[in-house]
Amino acid sequence: MTEQAKMQASTAVIIRNEAFLEEAERLKPLLNETIARPRRLVQIEADSAAVHGYRCNPVADAAELEARSFGKGDSFILDFGDHRVGYMSFDVRTVGSPPDAPLKLKLTFGEMPVEVAVPFDTYDGWISSAWLQEETIFIDVMPHRVELPRRYSFRYVKVEIMATSQKYKVSFHDVGCRAVTSADSGKVAPLHHADPVLEQLDRISIRTLADCMQDVFEDGPKRDRRLWLGDLRLQALANYETFNQNDLVKRCLYLFAGVPDEQGRVSANLFIQPSVIADDTYLFDYSLFFTASLYDYFAATNDRQTLRELWPTAFRQVQLALEKVDETGIVRDDESWWSFIDWQDRLNKQAPSQGVLLYTLKRAVHLAEAVGEEGTAALLSDKLNELAAATMRELWDPERRFFVSGSDRQISWAGQVWMALAEILPDADNRDLLLRLQAESPEVGMMTPYMMHHFVEALLIAGCKEEAIAQMKAYWGAMAQDGADTFWELYDPNNKSFSPYGSPLINSYCHAWSCTPTYLIRRYGL
Amino acid sequence: MTEQAKMQASTAVIIRNEAFLEEAERLKPLLNETIARPRRLVQIEADSAAVHGYRCNPVADAAELEARSFGKGDSFILDFGDHRVGYMSFDVRTVGSPPDAPLKLKLTFGEMPVEVAVPFDTYDGWISSAWLQEETIFIDVMPHRVELPRRYSFRYVKVEIMATSQKYKVSFHDVGCRAVTSADSGKVAPLHHADPVLEQLDRISIRTLADCMQDVFEDGPKRDRRLWLGDLRLQALANYETFNQNDLVKRCLYLFAGVPDEQGRVSANLFIQPSVIADDTYLFDYSLFFTASLYDYFAATNDRQTLRELWPTAFRQVQLALEKVDETGIVRDDESWWSFIDWQDRLNKQAPSQGVLLYTLKRAVHLAEAVGEEGTAALLSDKLNELAAATMRELWDPERRFFVSGSDRQISWAGQVWMALAEILPDADNRDLLLRLQAESPEVGMMTPYMMHHFVEALLIAGCKEEAIAQMKAYWGAMAQDGADTFWELYDPNNKSFSPYGSPLINSYCHAWSCTPTYLIRRYGL
């Protein structure tokens, strides 16, 4: 599968449900604004022991900035001390003669030191370089208050003075970031945990979630700044344990339900500006997560009216997924970009997708019962049993004692994890499957915190609490030790510069699907 | 003299005359706005026969732009068909999937083809690269109306699509330039001249002047966008023959008189934004041009009240200039950046500056009489005679029959021209001087249209009408043949890429001091 194929557009016709979209608009949150200030002037140094090879060294308190003046070719880096999402502003004044030429500045925003260390023009990956956060600005009249209109996601900002004139230099004052989030930190019950690592993971998770909570649940405030169903499901789970701002979940569900295609299929992600637009990417697993997310929402809120309104959309996703099931009771494998599961190029998606379908069917049965559609519930329950039996018959390899996937009978981590989450094996067997998975460690592994979440949750539902905690510490704990202020989109402890996009410069370092330790810790009482 | 020395700041204390500044504010013109549209899509080709080595070839009507779509790495160049000063705007729409990443565009504005042909990062001259007209912009949400907030001076605009994504391209619509000027073209009497070249020079002059008429007379709308006294004097002369918008001259005179230093000296130039600020550059000749400009203004308007209010400032410039005269009656030579005269590094400024002083003294006598200060007039007249005699005694070389300058007794074009304009020789001798100058062509020549103006006017007051017309055609006519839509700041027919700043990229191609052919043609009835 080429990346181009992954990105191939479909030509869906969107059927707008204006009532749903109006409800979503009504639920649009106000953003809370706070002014964040830089803490330090720093230098970035090459350090082969540091993540991406760059370390950040403090050189002065940020307050010292105002006394300094800068001419052509000078630069400095400010460290805001923590991850911020917001709008930067500062005063620029001149030192010396009246400014007889415009000022040219280049600003580079980085969530990580590498972003302010490595020039962006070295980036040659396959997704758009326009995600790299930079601005080149000209200022004709000074003194001037610069209020950058775009939102950035950053901890570090590098300011390069590209041109002044021979007659003047510049100084910078009142640098601030109007940080924005729809999360209300006051609503989070503090976690005082005996284990300081778990307490730390909880804190970083909440920070990650908060910075992704804007007027929708964004996947990442740096990139893609967009509402993805796969991220939404996990954000919502973390939210129920922390901010409990359930109207934001509700809003997002109404948005997805508001712009299905002509088959009733919900898109994998939505654009919110300039108006609500369904992306032309449809994914088997993500569409089913609408149903799973509605199940979680109802479980958290008991909001029966929303359930009633959105149930037809949720049921439709299951129906459409079932159309992909062949006569043997297994979802048809496919060479196209049909199911996400994980950023793992070698992964065959059949078994994990079958797992997602079983996982969702189980929840759909409950939802059908909750809306009083007993007949539908019974049909779905029969289908669940039928597919579970088919799964055991077709995909379970009794000799290797793993689930296999695709014509090559691939044994992947993702395949076992999703079958464990689907709970089609007896509890003890489920537990054995996961421990065997850890012991034998098949080659086609997990690439993202998103997939890692599912593994840890599978361990927890299988009763492997100690293993789950150990895994969380080994993964998110290592990320924290590597300097994560918020949890990263991608993290491979053995290849810390891994990027599915071609460069760690373009990775997101505050990413919704990585925020689940708070959910796992709090929900499972770790 | 190093460029650094030229740019050295003085530390003048400014004494603000608020009444004068209020009068200037009251006279602030409204800007007329018109929407200019691109005419053609063009390509720039290398051509050693063209100015700067680049020629512009039309490839399509601009209307064809809207049907085209552009992805990463694509670019196009629009030709607006004539010089424009204003604010560009356009719609950008997406083609293909919904835009799943920001759009990154680079815009480059050029008055000349070279500016959209040669990358700006090759510029390494000594004045600020921030004058080079470019923008790099990111657009997060599309469709989007881009309204660039900065004013540009251009005919060509290159649009480079730096990044889209693999899923979308972009198209451009409703491209326009909100062109601004305070000039009212309806006020100009048409010139129907038997000589089509003079008619053309008149037209281009007027266009140049109009594009420099903003809320003050700017020297160049691309660079420096500022009110310089040397430019103002020539713009005002051209204005009296064309737009006759004399309140704008008056406003500029009040501005200069409003911010003298503690000695009463007017600055060589003013910044208007964010408030009226006198630059810390003071030039012997430019300060005197305040007096000469007031003389011209009074001659054109007979506005006696303004004369009365501004006469003390005008007289003060003469007094200060006279302080620079030594015991022999000649202005002291100096190694510093004390008098401009021309962009000619080898030029000794003594003789031409003496000429400027004599030229101004003669006009100051008239002004003193006009305000009824007979005693002052008599004193100035005596001083004029004394200095004229000293000039003949000290600077006139009877053997070489030229005026000499400085301790090396330099014979320059500028020295002769300013002495001719000072009219200290009998008319016939003045004429002979100029013809001898042309015939012998001393090595230290003229470098700018500004200096060329003074030479042509000197020819005209000496009665050498044919020579003046021939010179105008050889210079401004050649510029027109080389493609000038508006007259250029710099033009050396023998070295068309000449720049005193290090690169033709940074030269201004619509420059006030080059707009005088209309004045010379109309005032002298050519």
TrEMBL record, chains A, B:
Name of a matching Pfam family: Glyco_hydro_78_N
Cleaved signal peptide residues: none
Ranges where the Alpha-L-rhamnosidase six-hairpin glycosidase domain occurs: 194-520
Any one GO molecular-function label of the UniProt entry: hydrolase activity
Membrane-spanning segments: none
Keyword Hydrolase among record annotations: yes
Record InterPro entries: 6-hairpin_glycosidase_sf, 6hp_glycosidase-like_sf, Bac_rhamnosid6H, Glyco_hydro_78_N
Hydrolase keyword on record: yes
Domain of life from the UniProt record: Bacteria
Record domain Glycosyl hydrolase family 78 alpha-rhamnosidase N-terminal: where: 38-179
Keywords: Hydrolase
Protein name: Sugar hydrolase
Organism: Paenibacillus aurantiacus
Source taxonomy: Bacteria, Bacillati, Bacillota, Bacilli, Bacillales
